[in-house]
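Data follows
____________
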Amino acid sequence: MSMNEKIKTQILDAFVAMSAKVGDCIPERWISQKLIPSLNPKEQAEVNGTIDGMKNEGFITVHRRSNMLDIALGQAGYDAIYPSDPVAAKTKIRTAILEQF
């Protein structure tokens, strides 16, 4: 898994953990206090680029509120974390379980 994919997965997993819908936000504070400390220095340097890439792909949108950035789940991100195809959902679950071992 590439650095960008790892960061992207962690961001999308944060949306899954909060059962997010399109438009629900993760505050910038989560990025600075949870995401970045969990990454090595090379990965930390890729965070902004990964966020920009996710924004360009429609996975997220970025909003500025009260001098802070919020990352909101976009439709493409929602479709990625909650696939409507039951076979794809089972495959994603199976893969996640097997990666635990």
User: Anything to note?
Assistant: The two ends are 16 Å apart (CA to CA). The chain is about 60% helix and 15% strand. Strands lie at 25-27, 60-65, 68-73. The domain at 3-99 is CATH 1.10.10 (Arc Repressor Mutant, subunit A).
